[in-house]
Design brief:
The longest helix has 13 residues. The protein has a 5-stranded parallel sheet, sandwiched between helices. The protein is an alpha/beta fold. It contains 7 helices and 5 strands; from the N terminus they run βαβααααβαβαβ. α1 crosses α2 and α3 packs across α4. The protein is globular, with a radius of gyration of 14 Å. β4, α7 and β5 form a beta-alpha-beta unit. The protein starts with a strand and ends in a 9-residue tail after the last strand.
Length: 141
């Protein structure tokens, strides 16, 4: 299955790790190429720009449109939601949009961890998610 990996760039290392695990399970994982560079530290300029002005960096590197294209070209997305900003299983604005992109294009939506309880859009996430896999990549069908 062609699976787009979504999640915060703060967790780029974990996303790359999950990418390789999905490959070993026979899937075709996909994500923005810069995630590999962010994870290994070679995207120093991008990382610094994101720290200074996250929104402008997303625009400059075309993150939202590129993620949309990747999502549309696949069969499913895997939302890698970890604890961030003291919110367990955090899903931020960009990732919420990515879930929406997948949903309206009839792609399966998998959550790595349960739906966050401390966000104002829990209902919207629940409507669009097909399956919570509780950290078990073998539950992706």
């Amino acid at each position: 299955m062609k699976i787009t990996i979504c999640g915060s760039i703060k967790f780029a290392n974990k996303l790359v790790e999950i990418y390789h695990k999905l490959e070993k399970l026979g899937h075709q994982p996909m994500m923005h190429e810069e995630m590999f560079n962010i994870a290994d530290g070679s995207a120093k300029k991008l990382i610094q720009e994101a720290k200074e002005n996250h929104g402008a960096t997303k625009r400059k590197y075309n993150f939202i449109k590129i993620w949309h294209e990747i999502i549309v070209s696949g069969n499913a997305i895997l939302v890698c939601n970890f604890t961030k900003n003291n919110i367990e299983n955090y899903i931020g604005g960009n990732t919420l949009m990515e879930i929406g992109f997948a949903h309206v294009h009839d792609k399966k939506v998998f959550l790595l961890n349960s739906v966050p309880e401390k966000v104002n859009y829990t209902d919207e996430i629940n409507v669009m998610v097909d399956k919570v896999i509780d950290g078990d990549l073998t539950k992706i069908f």
